[in-house]
Amino acid sequence: MIKIASIFFLFCSLNAHRLHLREANEIHPESVHLGNPEMQDPMPIIILPEVFVYPTTIRFKNDKEQMEYDKLVRDVKRTLPYAKLVYNTLIETYEYIETLPNDKAKEAHLKRMEKELFKQYKPELKKLTLTQGKLLLKLIDRECNQSSFKLVNAFLGPLRARFWNVFATMLGASMKTSYDPIGKDAMTEHVVRLVERGKI
To answer: How many structural domains is the chain composed of?
Structure first.
């Protein structure tokens, strides 16, 4: 799983030109509307992004729940930076390869990038536990709006994607893992948002 997590990370980072990137949470011109245009002085209406409010403290039923929560916080803090790095790398890669003249030049750049990313991040990603590797796959889906399977499929093709997914399944993981922020991953989402805001 440790090797697979590092490979997934690298493949995700190289697939920017096929990814539907998520818009940043900011006010866009199209989110500003006028109220009733027939009024003499129509009032502007600004559509703001969602605001999430969480309780400042969580009450646990027992010590086991407390320990599980603390472990989740630790794992999110460990893996979230990598998931965000994947997203940022995708944006940078997309912007750069769009300036290249042809597919051959783009392919050559992606191969160089793959080699550099392996050298830079493989030692750190090998230190992830199985649980952290699984969480990283979910957080990549959260950040990129694409499962690792779809990303690898788009970059390496369906045969390689199926191969890596079978290999991951043998290690107790799945590249097709999706992130469900309002369902089974609600607590993870809670922790992620607190970490993003520096609250924990």
So the answer is: 1
Residues 162 and 164: their CA atoms lie apart, in Å, by 6
User: Which residue from 3, 4, 2, 1 is spatially nearest to 152, judged by alpha carbons?
Assistant: 4
What residue type is assigned to position 188 of the chain? T
In a domain, residue 48? The reply is no
For 110-148, the pLDDT digits (tens) are 778 777 877 888 888 888 898 998 999 899 899 988 887
On whether the CB atoms of residues 96 and 105 are closer than 8 A, the answer is: no
20 touches 145 (CB < 8 A): yes
The pLDDT confidence band at residue 23, using thresholds 50, 70 and 90, is: very low
Q: Exposed, middle or buried by CB within 10 Å (0-12, 13-18, 19+), for 109?
A: middle
- The answer to the question of residue 28 being in a domain is no
Q: Could you tell me if residue 23 is inside a domain?
A: no
Note whether residue 45 is domain-resident: no
Q: What is the pTM of this model?
A: 0.70
- State the alpha helices, DSSP H only, in 62-156: 63-97, 103-125, 130-144, 148-156
Burial per residue of 21-40, b for 16 or more beta-carbon CB atoms within 10 angstroms, e otherwise? eeeeeeeeeeeeeeeeeeee
| Encoded tokens for 153 | 């499929």
Neighbours of 96 (CB within 10 A): 14
Domain membership of residue 158 as a residue range: 2-18+57-196
